[in-house]
Amino acid sequence: MLKTLLKSVREYKASSIITPLLMVGEAAMEIVIPFLMTFLIGEIQNVGTESGVNVGRVVLFACLMVVAAMFSLFCGLLGARCSAKASCGFAHNLREDMYNNLQTFSFANIDNYSTSSLITRITTDVTNVQNAYQMCIRMLVRAPILFIAAIVMTCLIEPSMALIFVAAAVVLGVIIAVCMFKVMPAFRTMFKKYDKLNSVVQEDLTAIRVVKSYVREDYEMEKMKSATQDVYYYSVKAEKVLTFMMPAVQFVMYATMIILLLVGSDMSINGWGNVNFSNLQALITYAMQVLSGVMMVAICLNFVSMSKGSADRICEVLTERTTLPKPEEPVSVVADGSVEFDDVDFFYSQKADVAVLKDITFSIKSGETVGIIGATGSGKTSLVSLLPRLYDVAQGSVKVGGVNVRNYDIDALRNSVAMVLQKNVLFSGSIAENLRWGDENATDEELRLAAKQACAEEFIERLPGKYNYDLGQGGVNVSGGQKQRLCIARAMLKKPKIIIFDDSTSAVDTKTDAQIRAALREHAPETTKIIIAQRVASVEDADKIIVLDDGRISGIGTHDELLANNEIYREVYESQMKGSDETEKKVTGGDNNG
Known about the structure:
The chain is α/β, with parallel strands linked by helices. The protein has 18 helices and ten strands. The chain is elongated, with a radius of gyration of 36 Å.
């Protein structure tokens, strides 16, 4: 885990190495100052004696203490600055590495995580690891140096006194270890509850219009209350352990100080051992340094325990590898829009028992228009998702332009296949910026042409600012049908070899639907057009129609051939025509027989 995380330090290695060195300098000076103080106090004690005070020595020791204090201050300030730079840079790289790796994920990889979980990992979890990293490169170096050096200096003064420090350190270590053992499971659970909280907030804000239209505000507020209550419960559970740890550590520290004063005073008064008034002050200072060093370690371990669960979750994302391996010698050019499925089986998960698609075999010539129709859940979207290799097949092969999709450079393949999905996704920004997702170098004239072909120009021209009109997040400022037409225009700008419409004209009227299909035939005759539709009218003029039923091909043929030979297609057609006839009768008030 550490090896995976530390790869993200990169250009901040220098700051990460300099910080501990500066902490060593700071700790060394804090050890030297009490040692110099013993000489200074010993010299001052000569006031009124025969030997008298050596003013030169007093000034020398005082100056040395000032120099040591200034150097300690310098190391401390510079160390704090370097640690902040290192930890912030580490967090920056960590977020960037996670996000970059996410971009390599296949749909199968993405299915393993919820959106809210990924958001929590990139934000809260990284912040926890950042804080722990900063504490470690500062305190986990400074504290052991202080501890070891203070023990050594104490042994030089009076070895028996060092035993008191060691015993106190052992007791503190046991307290800290027990607290860490109890607190880490609570933190791990707490971060999972954070995922749920983010999920509730994201879902509610995304679907706020639906919530309000169904008057479900109270229900959503109750969900939010439950999610926040779970986070609160596990946060308090963890903090209860931590709040016990700090008073326990302080109790041991003050108990050690009392024992030290009692034993040291007895030594000084009764003359046993090497303790006197001047070095007793140094021993007290060293005791504080030893115990504060242990306390610093406790604080660091507090941060580490909080970040352990976060680090595990971050490493899951960083070490996840795409399920779509790159070919050794990738093909970078898609010759044409021909498509061939050969005995294809497909599962969404390797653990799944039932195939989504079974025994799929068909071929499409470049430039053909192909309709795909079938009941909900029959596998229509799954079928077309295999063309741009959003998923890999479990058995068989999918070929585009005569080449197995597994042999293509994945960017080249996906640049040749445009998809207009069921769920129309637009991004915050202007209409022009959204359309240029299809071609970032498209001219204004090309934008207008694509919009015209998608029947989007008419409403764009009425908007304030026209192509510079700000759509807002997710395109909230336009209707469902307008979103669909903008997404179609965006796909057309891509000038792909294959264009897939996944029920993407469901929100437009039949006239506009027909106009879009006519524009495709006229302006993209060499582009293979695959249309998934619920309406027979959207696919009846296709070169061929594929009927899917429960993941299998029920029939392939033209509209007339399927009407004659395929029961499923005939039932769909007759049910839609019957509904259309009944609607017409209601509008005209009769059957128009005379």
